[in-house]
Amino acid sequence: MVDPVPETRSGLLDRYQPVGAFDEAFDDDGSVRDTYSRIVERFRELDVDEIKRLEKLVADEFRRQGITFTVYSEDEGTERIWPMDLFPRLIAAAEWEELARGLSQRVAAMNCFLADLYNGGGQAIADGVLPRWLVMSSQGFERNAMGIAVPHSAHCNVAGIDVVRDADGRYRVLEDNLRSPSGISYVVENRAAMAKACSWLFYDHAVQPTEQYGQMLRSTLESMAPGGEDDPHIVVLTPGIFNSAYFEHAFLARSMGVELVEGRDLVVDGHSVYTRTIEGLVKVDVIYRRIDDDFLDPVAFRPDSTLGVPGLLSALRAGTVAVCNALGNGVVDDKGVYPYVPELIRYYLGSEPIIDNVTTYMMWDPDQRREALDRLDELVAKPVGESGGYGVLIGPHATEQQLDEARATIEAEPRDWIVQELVQLSTLPSVADDRLEPRHLDLRPFVLTGERTQVFPGGLTRVAMRRGSLIVNSSQGGGSKDTWVLAPEAP
Amino acid sequence: MKLGISYRMRFRYSEPVTECQNEVRVRPRDDDYQRVLSYRLTSQPQLQVLSVVDYWGTVVEHLGIRTPHTELELLAEATVETATRSGPAEAAAGPALDDAGFRLEHLEFLEPSQHVDWHPGDAVEQRAAAAVTGAASVPDMVSAVLADVRGALSYEQGATDIGISLTELLGGGAGVCQDFAHLALGMLRSVGVPARYVSGYLFAADETSANAETAELVTVQTHAWIEVALPGSGWWALDPTNGGPVGERHVVIGCGRDYGDVPPVRGAFMGSGTAEVDAEVVIGRHVEGPPAVAASAPGRQVAAAPAPPAPNWRNQQSQQQQQQ
Predict the structure, then answer these.
(1) Do A182 and B323 touch (CB under 8 A)?
(2) Could you tell me which CATH number the domain at B2-82+264-319 has?
(3) Touching check for A473 and chain B: CB below 8 Å?
(4) ipTM greater than 0.85, yes or no?
(5) A359-421 has which fold?
(6) What are the pLDDT digits (tens) for A458-488?
């Protein structure tokens, strides 16, 4: 028996209307961009029922694999199935190469700054590249990190740099994450689910693989072992099962083939760190930690921390263990420091930034503050110490009362805020009920630095699930897309 | 003045403790006014000590123990030669405090900090503003604030715990040397005078009296005082607890924004019991021969720590930033 063929297929893309932003698949005339020609063709062949069937396949796969994320409300966390949109994001080889160069450059400069600040006497500050008071007043500036040796000056071993494309399609950096950037597990799992549910989509494309992340991270961490230890003992330190990214911590440990530990599994003896095992203590060389600086060691930091390892700071100071990412990276995540990153690139590397920042106004500068607060209804205000989209005010979407409140808050504590031009994030077709509609997205590529720097191909594409929404963070209800970096065309 | 100092810390646990990690900041520093002639830190049981200099320039010694024990004793012994200090070289006028360069240089000692938690407009600032009204110079402002602190607080052992806010402290009206120092720091910073916390030892039978008759050997606690930055003439040390100057009977360990940057001892232990910490400083004029330790001097109990309330570990797990 043969399925009846519908007389007229309602094309999923027939009524696709760009929304005044750069669309990555269609140009202004509505013609398909080259990179997307084959994907769009494939999606034109699908109907609603088929899309629904594929979406269910993917969701079932995620459910079976336990691929979830946690949304906190009140004190309780709610687990949800990881949302992935079926229409993938494609990045052509040459475009990716340029982007990857820009990301390497940015992370290199930020690593230079961290090494300078904590181990180099603060030359950039002495030379006036950025103000000393800004660094001293940063919540992320960690005085206990001062003088702790970091191999290869690689303070940030795993960076997640959030990039967006503006109305002209140019990439810009929106935010740097140099502490515990999360999301890489979803990059790998998205690909696995996509390959399972939609293998036919890959036939027309040469896509760079993603399953090697564990190997890449492992070799990066191995290069951080104190004293160049040949076969170092690596562990992943998690806060525990109630953390929103616990799934990822387990994933990383598994894909690197190392232990997943909590603070209570580790012990410091004679200024070295050990894991407790049934065979006794085994020395640890490298800790990939996913807990905050403040919680790492209850002796040196918060005494009430139940997650850390008493004496860990003494082991770091003795140079017997590496903690990755290093202590004190939060100073670069401080959005007050972000506007200075282009200058840091020029200062340390002597080159022009390949990827620009989004135009940013520093609220502690009275002139910039006045200008930005006058136009706040067109701009975006962000608290300097938050990430994940928390506390962000989007001017055009705010009420008069919200704007007035924000102005007062900023006037009272100008150091705590930056204000940015609103970027109309680029869009891609995304499944919305019975058709594909443009949805805004960003990209979080991951940059690994140890003895050398590698940019992992692609990254996590986050997509706003509601029409017109610019909030893509999964903690705020965003979804994701499988991200394909295409292999260079054969000559 | 040549002083012999011995600082003995005894940790006693009601149940055997399997692990214990400590950081101590008890070594006197070397500076323009004092020279460390000898120093050693020993422990019973014997432990490996890692000694480093922290961000604030203070020597911090890390010690850990991983064998079950019910008692741990640390003994720091130092011989220090101290000199007298002169007062402020010049009496800078108040407006010099507003110089942008001067403020930036001393930023960390102008802002509120963990234990010096004043806020613009609060009782601390109001009190300071009233106290300095009419002061002709920065040293006059400082003297006026110190006099006001001694009016606001009476000296009382055990009146406060570390962690008390300045507002609570003012409400209670009593405290020990840390409290006098913290309140003075808050008031001074709130009127724009950079001020930092000093941890150290004082050779005096009574820390509340600057001119107390001093015995040959006294058994006391560690002491705390402050230093203020004067435009044009550097740091000036003062002792808010007794209102007097800082002189050759003061021995500096180190300084920071407040107590939290230079605590003499900080640690964590694993075990189900409760901890008692006795600490005593025996200090006297150094005489050649056996160390000036009054072995039989009764230790004063500075903290009988009950089992801490169970922290909310589930909340802590979910608080960790996973940059999403």
Answers:
(1) yes
(2) 2.60.40.2250
(3) yes
(4) yes
(5) Dna Ligase; domain 1 (3.30.1490)
(6) 999 999 988 888 888 776 778 999 999 999 8
